[in-house]
Amino acid sequence: QVQLVESGGGLVQSGGSLRLSCAASGRIISINSMGWYRQTPGKERELVAAVTSGDRTNYADSVKGRFTVSRDNARNTVYLQMNSLKPEDTAVYYCDAEVVTLGSTNYKYTAHFWGQGTQVTVSS
After folding, report:
1. Nearest-CA neighbor of 11 among 116, 89, 79?
2. How do residues 51-75 score in pLDDT, each as one tens digit?
3. Which residues contact 52 (CB under 8 A, 6 or more apart)?
4. Coil, strand, or helix at residue 63?
């Protein structure tokens, strides 16, 4: 009932930049927080950055000063601007949104939804 579609991943050289986008659609009443996580093989998924509906942001220490998270509430979209990329930023990046939605019998509830993931590869 809620879909998140990511775009913007790819291959970039160390020191380069990429911008990820994630658009939410479906039975959306409102969206609380939106954010980005990343995962590499054999490791747990980790928070990269998140932004609340009131534009409060939270960043992993490893990306502070290099990444910027923002959202467009009118478009239900969250962005991640990634600058000064490093090889250790290589991962699959997933979009997450905490959404207030309607169930099949039109009852309201809040749940987390995930995008399908987009690969970011930074070459040295």
Report:
1. 89
2. 999 999 999 999 999 999 999 999 9
3. 32, 33
4. helix
